Amino acid sequence: ISGGRGPEARGSAQGSPVMKRLGVIATCAVGGSLFALYAVAAPFVAPALRKVCLPFVPATSTQVRNVLDVLRARSGTLVDIGSGDGRIVIAAAKQGFHSVGFELNPWLVWYSRYRAWREGVHRHTSFHISNLWKVSFAQYSNVVIFGVPQMMEQLEAKLQSELQTSAKVVACRFPFPTWTPDHVAGEGIDTVAHWGITIVNSF
After folding, report:
1. What span, in angstroms and rounded, lies between the C-alpha atoms of 45 and 34?
2. 61-201 CATH pick, 3.40.50.150, 3.40.1350.10, 3.10.620.30, 1.10.357.10
3. How remote is the C-alpha of 153 from its chain's centroid?
4. Which residue has the higher pLDDT, 8 or 176?
5. Does the global pTM surpass 0.85?
């Protein structure tokens, strides 16, 4: 009687390490996919977990046009607080502003930089990954914000304490709670209100 193992037994023994390697590869692939999914989704999900949610809602073409309309006679620096995909920053740069966007979502910031390069205004724009509450806006002469009602009171106080008296503030859709606008353009979701800090400080 032969003491050796048959072909099937030898094949099973030889196949076991192969199966283990395949298992490790499959585990790594699944783990890598889950990590990639988290990396992509986290910046979009995270805003919903903050005290004040500032979701990404792209500005309509009418809204962008209204922003530029109320700033028609203005020039200098412009900052878009919560710049999203960069469309207001890019449109303002095409009108001669040196435009800056602050956005917490890194994917939107990278996309904005790409759009600015593609549309030929990357030398007149810059986009930063930053929390708006940790940024001073004192250096900007024109400020654009598309916020949510829950944040407007706190942002109103921040801007009033930081901006120069020559600055102008434009809010899309949701107004500031105590400021009275000196000009309003559009209606509904495309409403844009405009304030001069000199007028605001005189209240």
Report:
1. 15
2. 3.40.50.150
3. 21
4. 176
5. no
What are the boundaries of each domain within the chain?
Answer: 7-49, 61-201
Nearest C-alpha neighbor of 194 from the set 62, 175, 177, 132: 175
In sequence order, what are the residues at sequence separation of 6 or more whose Cβ sits closer than 8 angstroms to the Cβ of residue 196?
A: 167, 168, 169, 182
Q: Do residues 162 and 154 touch, judged by C-beta distance below 8 A?
A: no
Q: What is the chain's mean pLDDT, rounded?
A: 81
Lowest mean pLDDT among 17-31, 60-74, 103-117, 160-174: 17-31
Contact 95, 182 (CB under 8 A): no
Give me the mean pLDDT over the 73-79 stretch: 95
Retrieve residue 100's tokens.
Answer: 């800056």
Structure tokens at 31: 């783990």
How far apart are the C-alpha atoms of 146 and 4, rounded to whole Å?
78
